[in-house]
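hi!! sorry for the late reply, been swamped w classes. u asked for the two structures so here they r. pasted raw, havent cleaned anything up. first the sequence of the first protein and right below it the tokens
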Amino acid sequence: MATTKSAKKAARQSKTRAARNLIYKENIKKLVKQARAFVSAKKVEDAKKILPEIYSALDKAAKVGVIKKNNADRRKSRLTKLLNPRNQ
């Protein structure tokens, strides 16, 4: 357990930030899961409708520092690739 005043404050800050970051991550996870479910149910048009929402969530998480920019870009790329296969 933290003993110094600054260590106690750092522990409080860490707890608050972790809770805030979790909100971003859970939102991304929920949206991506939803999109993948649409794709597996052959409802690609529905998945394409929530794509901008997913992009926004990923970009915002990268901007705030929850995930890195390349991570967000990679996830967006893979999702887009999943929704727009070349051999259609």
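now the second protein. again sequence first, tokens right under
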Amino acid sequence: MVIGGLIILALLGVIGTFTANPAGFIQSIAVMALVVLVVYFLFRKFTGSSPQKKEQRAFLKAAKKSKKRLQQKSGEGTVKTSTLGTLASLKKSNKTKKKSPAHLTVIDGKKGKKKNRASL
């Protein structure tokens, strides 16, 4: 009831302002829209691209990939064991060895060489 009364009064005020000064009404609406857009873009700029959010997004993406990969492995393993029996279990035990990731490499530095420092 109260909200309905407020809406009716707001509509009467908007119509009265529009009929009294249409150019001023349109100008005030344009200024309000411009202010809202500026505030919106500033808010998005300072809150949207934080490094923590990017890291969190990357972590969630990697977690989904890992989960999908584990589901595929478990799905394939059940099919092999049911069709091949003991041979599949022997092959599976060989696959349980932990492999080193191929995308990681060791870079050997210049450990044997000493720096040629100038003495004072």
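hope this helps!! also noticed smth abt the second:
The first helix runs from residue 2 to 20.
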